[in-house]
Automatic annotation (TrEMBL):
Organism: Chryseobacterium gambrini
Domain LPS-assembly protein LptD central: 179-650
Cross-referenced Pfam families: LptD_2
PANTHER family found in the cross-reference section: LPS-ASSEMBLY PROTEIN, LPS-ASSEMBLY PROTEIN LPTD
Protein name: LPS-assembly protein LptD
Length: 833
């Protein structure tokens, strides 16, 4: 062997090293029939084909693999006409995707799927074409999204509703996923609806998420077709969320409604809201054209009762323009009858309590608007210092007895600033000039004791002290031919007092009937009381609270210098009146098979009271108006009845040609001056029949268009057709000596609902004025509860506002923020914080 033979052996450098194939690039395949084309570098899998690659598994009827182009193609099972009858199922990262055809590039990891079905959280997406860019981003064309549970579980071949977008992007991250789309339209039962949104972001998360607010749509006679409540919802941090709503009308009216909610758990919660808009009526250039600006500002604040028991703050502020409800652009105010409001009140209150002091301090600011007069009452600020009731004397034995030991004192001081103004004067010099300031103190003393075992004797006294910064002076001006009222600035006040003494007892009586009779007994409880009230005549000249002026006829006319003021006026005329009150309660016992005792109590009158008084010090008409009030309920407390009657014991005569009457001193006529009766009765299907157990009565159960029914032997469908009807009636009669013609008010109100089918419901309310013989406010509503959404239709057919409103709401929780069918803001009980 030559010397260099050793060098000819295979060296380490010449060793053949096989390239290690990465594990994640290995394809695992199986099928009933497999074929490999080595020349074209193709693999064909037929019947029960399966490919596993990395974290992905493809199951299909046919799969081809192009090893040269790094492409996999899969197709579902076809019938004899070439239609796909079984889909391709692709599983990746625990998610299943169904497609008719599927193509995947193993090199770029991108995929294209046709007629893909993708389930995400509570919904499913079906798209004609889907392109997967990576594991996080999927682009889809002609895509439909639905949350219909029947369709998701393949109980139905078509969804009852879906949202369709021409282009849609599914973005997936580790913790959540979301859909982003361009214009998107709602379809119901394959029929397109006018609900089209310019874009949509549907976040699939258990947390609060931003999203489009779906509007209702309809038509109003005065302002045209509309979208009501179109907007956007945006959560802001942990403690805030924001909604911006808009109302748009085809005749040019518009309204913007921002609303911010806030909450701090176990501390407080509240919200700010506003309505700012422009009402356009008629056609520009014509006489009926009108353009009105409207606004409403509201604030609600509630403090948690556990936050601070010694300091509480609350606010209920609602300030609107004078003609806001006459020009409302938010149809919710029409449907919930806010447009009938004649007054709006706002209040802000802060209350301070003390651990060791028996004092409660309350500060209030209030604002009240009267839409009929256009005037507003402003009280700012108003403070009340109340001292808790206390006993003036201590008990010697520990058990209080006698008049002295039961003597209690209630007292407090009230400071108030008040002004009545119109909208244009608010917080201007004219308003401050009319502002009145007043301080009032009340001291109430009271005590009682038992006399002769059966009588309760009570004594009481009231002392009022008041100060104000403004009083008035009146005089008749013959040049202007009217009474002039001047305002005097300066501190002035008055003090008044009154005393009362009364005695009361309770009497019982019972009438028993024969054994076996339908009525076993009638029980009568009567509570009579008499009392004497004394109050001096504070109209005397010695007090200086009243003055006189001569009117146009030269008659001396008295007036109070505190008339119309913030602290009120003292009483005039000596009062030494004996008053009486007789309270009655009447009930009976009747036989009853439904009661376990065999006896049932029926209230004839829960209360029937007769009251009046006789003033010994009065120069004329010593007897007062006699008042009778009654309250009762019948039919297991369903029918509620309240009534009142006022009788004048003196004769009233009316002279020919005069409307006002003259109240004479002739006693004993007892003419009706007022009568009122109110009745309410909630009727329902349960009252008129026992509830049927359909499961026991009918053997067959089934569905008709997804509604559950029970079928009898003749195959007729049955279900519980529940209904309710609330009846409210009111009659009022008023007559006084000031007018010959009495005033009558009579109305009947109905409010009810009827279940047409298990998922169809009709509801409504109406009000009929029997005096004018006209229907007042009337609303009719229809509601349809579908599998995955609800339809609500409300219609006001006549009146000032003729409107119909149509709303579709999606039930799925996953869309409750995005489409806002339900308000899942954190101010609601099931908040995620």
């Amino acid at each position: 062997m030559p010397e260099n033979a050793v060098n000819d052996t295979i060296s380490k450098k010449d060793t053949i090293v096989l390239k290690k194939e990465p594990l994640d690039a290995v394809l695992q395949t199986k099928a009933d029939y497999q074929r490999r084309d080595f020349q074209k570098k193709m693999v064909y899998l037929n019947k029960n084909a399966q490919v596993k690659y990395q974290d992905m598994q493809i199951d299909a009827d046919y799969i081809s693999i192009d090893e040269q182009k790094h492409l996999m193609y899969a197709r579902g099972k076809q019938d004899s006409l070439g239609r796909i009858i079984e889909p391709v199922i692709t599983t990746q990262a625990g998610k299943k995707y169904e497609t008719t055809e599927f193509q995947y590039n193993t090199l770029t990891r991108q995929a294209i799927a046709f007629n893909a079905r993708t389930e995400e959280n509570e919904g499913v997406i079906t798209a004609n074409k889907t392109k997967k860019y990576n594991d996080s981003i999927f682009a889809m064309s002609r895509a439909d999204y639905t949350t219909d549970d029947y369709y998701i579980k393949k109980k139905d071949t078509a969804a009852d509703y879906f949202l369709r977008a021409r282009y849609l992007k599914l973005v997936k991250t580790k913790n959540k996923s979301s859909i982003v789309s361009g214009p998107i339209q709602m379809y119901i039962e394959q029929v397109p609806t006018p609900l089209i949104m310019p874009f949509a972001i549907l976040p699939f998360s258990s947390k609060r998420s931003a999203g489009i607010l779906i509007p209702s749509f309809g038509e109003r006679q005065d302002v045209g077709f509309f979208l009501n409540g179109l907007g956007y919802y945006q959560p802001i941090g942990e403690h805030f969320d924001l909604k911006i709503l808009s109302d748009i009308y085809t005749k040019g009216s518009w309204n913007l409604r921002p609303e911010m909610n806030y909450i701090k758990k176990y501390r407080y919660s509240g919200n700010f809201s506003a309505d700012i808009g422009t009402m356009v009526r008629g056609i520009k250039g014509l006489d009926d054209y009108g353009k009105t600006g409207t606004y409403r500002i509201a604030w609600r604040h509630t403090q948690d009762s556990k936050a601070n028991p010694f300091l509480t703050f609350s606010a209920s502020v609602d300030i609107v323009s004078t003609k806001f409800y006459n020009n409302t652009l938010n149809n919710n105010y029409i449907l919930n009858q806010n447009v009938l409001n004649t007054q709006q009140n706002s209040t802000v209150t802060i209350t301070k309590r003390f651990l060791k002091l028996p004092v409660t301090i309350t500060g209030t600011a209030s604002y009240s608007q009267n839409f009929a007069t256009g005037l507003s009452d402003l009280r700012l600020p108003q403070m009340n210092v109340a001292i808790n009731q206390f006993y003036l004397f201590k008990s010697k034995t520990g058990v209080r007895s006698g008049l002295l030991e039961n003597l209690t004192v209630n007292t407090g001081i009230n400071l108030s600033n008040f002004v009545q103004t119109n909208e244009g004067e608010l917080f201007k010099a004219a308003m401050w000039d009319k502002l009145q300031t007043g301080v009032k103190n009340n001291i109430a003393l009271g005590t009682n004791t038992t006399v002769a075992k059966y009588f309760t004797f009570s004594l009481g006294a009231n002392i009022d002290n008041a100060l104000t910064t403004k009083t008035i002076n009146k005089f008749y001006d013959p040049i202007q031919n009217k009474v002039i009222t001047e305002t005097n600035k300066g501190i002035s006040g008055y003090s008044t007092f009154s005393t009362t003494a009364s005695i009361q007892t309770t009497l019982y009586g019972q009438a028993n009937f024969k054994k076996g009779s339908a009525i076993e007994a009638i029980r009568h409880m009567m509570t009579p009381s008499i009392g004497f009230t004394y109050s001096p005549d504070f109209g005397g000249s010695g007090y200086g609270y009243f003055k006189n002026y001569y009117d146009a006829n030269g008659a001396l006319t008295p007036y109070s210098i505190f008339e119309g003021g913030i602290i009120g006026s003292p009483t005039t005329g000596l009062v030494g009146a004996l008053g009486f009150n007789i309270g009655n309660n009447l009930e009976m016992k009747v036989k009853s098979k439904s009661d376990s005792t065999g006896v049932k109590k029926i209230k004839i009158f829960e209360s029937l009271n007769l009251s009046g008084n006789y003033n010994f010090a009065a120069k004329d008409h010593p007897f007062s108006i006699i008042t009778i009030t009654g309250q009762s309920s019948f039919f297991n407390n369903k029918l509620s009845l309240n009534t009142s009657l006022s009788l004048d014991p003196y004769r009233i005569i009316y002279l020919p040609g005069q409307d006002a009457g003259i109240r004479t001193e002739e006693f004993g006529y007892f003419s009706v001056q007022g009568f009122n009766v109110q009745m309410s009765y909630p009727l329902s299907s349960e009252i008129f029949g026992e509830k049927t157990d359909y499961a026991k009565k009918y053997k067959t159960k089934g569905e008709v268009r997804n509604e559950n029914y029970y079928f009898d032997d003749d195959n007729y469908a049955h279900f519980d057709q529940a209904w309710t009807l609330n009846v409210n009636a009111n009659y009022a009669y008023t007559k006084s000596s000031a007018s010959r013609t009495p005033t009558r008010l009579a109305s009947v109100g109905l409010d009810g609902s009827l279940k047409l089918t298990p998922y169809w419901n009709i509801n409504g309310s109406t009000h009929y004025d029997m005096v004018t013989q006209k229907l007042a406010y009337t609303r009719i509503g229809f509601a349809r509860d579908q599998r995955s959404f609800t339809i609500n239709f409300n219609w006001v057919p006549f009146g000032q506002y003729k409107v119909y409103d149509f709303f579709i709401g999606i039930k799925a929780n996953i869309l409750s923020d995005a489409l806002k069918y339900k308000d899942r803001s954190f101010t609601q009980p099931n908040a995620p914080f």
